[in-house]
Amino acid sequence: MRLRELFFLLMGIVLLSCSNDDDSNPVVDNPLLNHPYPQEWKLFKMKGNTEDSETTGEKMEWQETYILNPDSTFTKTRVTENETLTGNGTFMITENEHGTVLLLTFENENNPVIGTCYGDNKERLTQNAAEGILVSSWENCDGPGLFYEMAGE
């Protein structure tokens, strides 16, 4: 009888040690995928191409938000000292070797609110899974580094 009790005790220990608490799963902590829509993402930091050119809050050259809607449409609004610019379109979320990517396709290719490296009507933002922020790819081609956080987070 003791051998049987020992067997069940060892099986219990093995089963308890095999829990599925995987904190490295990027989907678990991914606000882009796991928060209800509409979502509002606000620009909180800009970075230029020179050292010490980072600005935040009201000191930034402009304020900017994305509203992502449940029907996969979005509105981008940029407010400067002199004007307010808006752009609309559709979005999709994909995964690649760099993580979660938000691809925005604007209705109008010539909209000055579009921040792109390709001169087209698409913007690409990659989610930094560790921080839960979105980072614009515009910086890759001498545009400003733009960093967005979900409003209310």
Structure, explained:
With 153 residues, this protein is mainly beta. The chain contains two helices and nine strands. It has an eight-stranded antiparallel β-barrel with strand order 1-3-4-5-6-7-8-9. The chain is globular and about 80 Å long.
Radius of gyration: 22 Å
The percent of residues in helical segments reads 10-25%
Strand content: 35-45%
The string of secondary-structure elements, in order, is HHEEEEEEEEE
For the termini, the CA-CA separation is: 56 Å
Biggest beta-sheet profile? 8 strands, antiparallel, barrel
Poorly predicted runs of 5 or more residues: 19-28
Number of helices: 2
Tally the beta strands: 9
Q: Mean pLDDT score, rounded?
A: 85
Class from helix and strand fractions: mainly beta
Shape: globular
Sheet with most strands: strand arrangement:
1-3-4-5-6-7-8-9
Salient structural properties:
eight-stranded antiparallel barrel; mainly beta; globular; 2 helices; 153 residues
List the helices and strands and how they pair.
Elements: H1 2-17, H2 31-34, E1 39-47, E2 55-56, E3 63-68, E4 73-79, E5 84-96, E6 99-106, E7 122-128, E8 133-136, E9 145-150
Antiparallel strand pairs: 1-2, 1-3, 1-9, 3-4, 4-5, 5-6, 6-7, 7-8, 8-9
Summary of the model, kept short:
This protein is mainly beta and 153 residues long. 13% of the residues lie in helices and 41% in strands.
